[in-house]
Amino acid sequence: MEVSNLETIPGRQVSEYIGLVSGSTVRAKHIGRDLMAGLKNIVGGELKGYSELLQESRKEAMDRMVKQAEKLGANAILNVRFSTSSVAQGAAELYVYGTAVRIN
What we know:
This protein is of the alpha+beta class. Helix content is 36%, strand content 41%. It is elongated. The chain starts with a strand and ends with a strand.
């Protein structure tokens, strides 16, 4: 599965537009990560716990989107975008979406 944030893949031609595909995950903050983040706010630096949480969330949402596209018979997803939203205090949704296509 080719995945791109571009509207086309250079050197490839879209033979069929299948439609919108998406994937999402909702994650809550971890008390241990919150404690470490509070300490980092005092001294500064990367919040590695949150960076790992976001990386895991992006991967899970992308995997779900790719599985949906595969079920529809796509071999590529174009114009991929990410979005986040707060769904409850301490919890957020990471949403990814794009256009499933068949390319030559």
